[in-house]
Write a structure and sequence with these properties.
The complex is a heterodimer of chains A (about 260) and B (about 300).
Chain A lengths: L2 E6 L7 E2 L11 H5 L2 E4 L2 E4 H4 E4 L2 E10 L3 E2 L9 E6 L13 E5 L14 E4 L22 E4 L15 E4 L15 E4 L15 E4 L8 E3 L6 H14 L10 E6 L7 E4 L1
Parallel strand pairs in A: 1-6, 2-7, 6-8, 8-9, 9-10, 10-11, 11-12, 12-13, 13-14, 14-17
Antiparallel strand pairs in A: 1-5, 3-4, 15-16, 16-17
Chain B lengths: L1 E2 L2 E2 L4 E15 L3 H11 L6 H4 L2 E8 L10 E8 L2 H16 L6 E4 L6 E3 L13 E5 L2 E8 L2 E6 L1 E3 L1 E13 L2 H16 L4 E2 L11 E3 L8 E3 L21 E9 L2 H16 L7 E5 L10 E4 H5 L1
The chains are: A mainly beta (about 260), B alpha+beta (about 300).
């Protein structure tokens, strides 16, 4: 079976809501081509906006994508979406399961309210990454997210669980009210990091944020090696190299049980 | 039928449906992983009185384990889900949680999950930390040497218990040596264990007893010391009988265990003292799985 390929033909600067992509249930290519989609002030057949081909409706490829395509992978369940090019806001918003691989940059509020599945962003993610959707109390409920480059400001709000790996820098005001979960940041971290956080585990190389945390006894922890092996295996490359991390546990200002590994 | 001169009787072993699970025990070095695994599998020879039958399946290299440390794969077998759950938690709590540097992981994936560290986490008294990675939940429980890490659940799968064969020998030394060869061969085969001490049983049993309180008693038909006064099944030249009981995840695994170990015995110097190879059954009415020795060796 060949993946279902959507080649974007849009050249105008109007935005296109791609939420319909996650809802495709039909098994006929002609039905997909005839789907009605609102674009600008009019409704169009999908075939006028995209060249559509392929027959595997669980494996979708979007080629020639651009920053005007919003809400790709919205509430996605059990599908794989591979995107070539940039995307607009709301990538993987409320995603439940499946996989998204983005070969480009993601717009604002990517992975907001995500509940499961895995997202690989092989570029940058704009502000509000893993932010709090209006209808939810938690920003990231579960899932695995890898961002190869930088992440913008005000990202990762009220994260409940899951794993976020950031290969570049993380903007200011991030990890606000962190509840739990694990965040790996290989680059620099912006100001006001982990404000009002309760629990959670941070792996970082940026020593500047350590002064607010209590340095713990340097006991051998099985978890660190286990996590290192797991993450390196999932991403098939060496993300965490350190064998003797410096561990901080708890904050100087309160009773929070935040854990910090300087790797 | 003879294999390399080793006589195989025309009989079969009778085995039963069981529930099984696999765990992986790791530690800083193989010595401490073995301490934990042997402690965990202690007093787990027969479901008749131990609750479960358990044994070390094989040693794992550091690169084969989830945390990159050496360890052991352990298989557990039970007749019921509740007994398997109870024994797994009790033994994990007393034998692995307590053992320095160890960690505990599931060794099976499946639909039917049973608790592994799900209740052990409460030992952390609120300081336990949950981590969910790759759709699996792990618990980090603070202990005096650092932390005990364990997976929340492991899978339970259908399995077979009670596959066996019996060596009838002219003397005890050769019988024991032949058994050791068989157990060594089976320790290299995955998905099976030999739950008895050293993998060998010398007290084969029959169903029932002259004493009403007992459900099983000595298999007098195979006791050389009773030949002549009971309905003995032993030839006059047989002076020692030992049995190897095999539990496995599938019939094919047990077949392989029986076949390879009997071939190994037939190639050893001890075969000259082995009068024949038999198997234990109850007439074929109790267990749904029959391991016909001659069919397996064909």
């Amino acid at each position: 079976m060949k993946p279902l390929v959507f080649k974007c033909k849009i050249k105008d600067k109007q935005r296109l809501d791609m939420s319909w992509l996650s809802k495709i249930k039909t098994s006929s290519l002609s039905k997909i081509k005839n789907l009605r989609v609102n674009y600008g002030t009019k409704g169009y057949k999908l075939s006028t906006l995209f060249d559509v081909s392929g027959n595997n409706f669980k494996d979708i490829i979007i080629s020639n994508s651009n920053k005007h395509l919003d809400n790709i992978g919205n509430n996605l369940e059990d599908k794989k979406i591979t995107i070539f090019g940039n995307v607009g806001f709301g990538l993987a918003k409320g995603m439940c399961s499946g996989e998204i691989i983005l070969n480009g940059n993601a717009g604002k509020n990517a992975c907001s309210g995500m509940k499961g599945g895995s997202v690989h962003i092989l570029g940058n993610a704009d502000d509000g990454f893993c932010s709090l959707p209006t209808s939810m109390n938690e920003g990231l409920v579960d899932g695995f997210i890898y961002v190869q480059k930088n992440v913008g400001d005000n990202s990762i709000v009220r994260m409940r669980r899951g794993n976020i790996i950031i290969g570049g820098n993380l903007g200011s005001g991030s990890c606000l009210e962190l509840i739990s979960g694990s965040v790996v940041v290989l680059g620099k971290i912006g100001n006001n990091f982990c404000h009002n956080a309760r629990r959670g585990t941070i792996f970082t190389r940026d020593k500047s944020i350590c002064r607010e945390y209590i340095r713990a006894n340097q006991t051998d922890l099985t978890f660190f090696n286990f996590y290192k092996i797991k993450i390196n295996k999932i991403l098939n490359k060496s993300i965490i190299n350190s064998s003797k991390p410096v561990r901080y546990f708890g904050t100087k200002s309160g009773k929070e049980l935040m854990e910090l590994f300087v790797i | 039928m003879k294999i390399n001169g080793l006589a195989i009787e025309n009989t079969f072993a009778e085995a039963f449906n069981m529930k099984a699970s696999r765990i992986i025990v790791t530690a800083d070095n193989i010595k401490w992983a073995k301490n934990a695994a042997t402690s965990f599998t202690g007093f787990a020879t027969s479901v008749i009185a131990c609750g479960i039958e358990a044994g070390i399946e094989r040693q794992l290299k550091a690169k084969e384990t989830p945390d990159g440390r050496p360890g052991f794969a352990v298989l557990l077998f039970s007749m019921s889900r509740s007994q398997l759950e109870k024994q797994l938690e009790t033994r994990a709590g007393q034998c692995i949680l307590t053992c320095p540097t160890t960690a505990l992981f599931s060794g099976l994936d499946g639909e039917d999950m049973i608790p592994l560290g799900k209740n052990l986490k409460y030992f952390g008294d609120g300081y336990q930390i949950s981590k969910r990675i790759d759709k699996k939940r792990f618990w980090r429980i603070p202990v005096m040497d650092g932390e005990f890490m364990c997976e929340e659940t492991t899978a339970r799968v259908p399995a077979i218990g009670g596959g066996n064969f019996i060596l009838l020998s002219k003397n005890r030394a050769s019988c024991l040596s032949a058994c050791e060869i068989a157990v060594n061969v089976m320790s290299e085969i995955g998905n099976i264990i030999t739950p008895f001490p050293g993998g060998v049983v010398r007290s084969g049993s029959k169903v029932g007893s002259k004493y009403k309180a007992l459900i099983a008693s000595t298999n007098d038909a195979f006791c050389p010391s009773l030949s002549g006064i009971t309905g003995s099944k032993l030839h006059k030249s047989v002076n020692c009988v030992m049995e190897i009981v095999i539990n496995g995840l599938t019939k094919e695994d047990i077949d392989k265990g029986i076949r390879e170990s009997l071939i190994a015995i037939s190639k050893s110097k001890y075969k000259k003292d082995i009068v024949s190879v038999s198997a234990g059954n109850y007439g074929g009415k109790l267990g749904p799985h029959h391991f016909h020795l001659r069919k397996i060796l064909k």
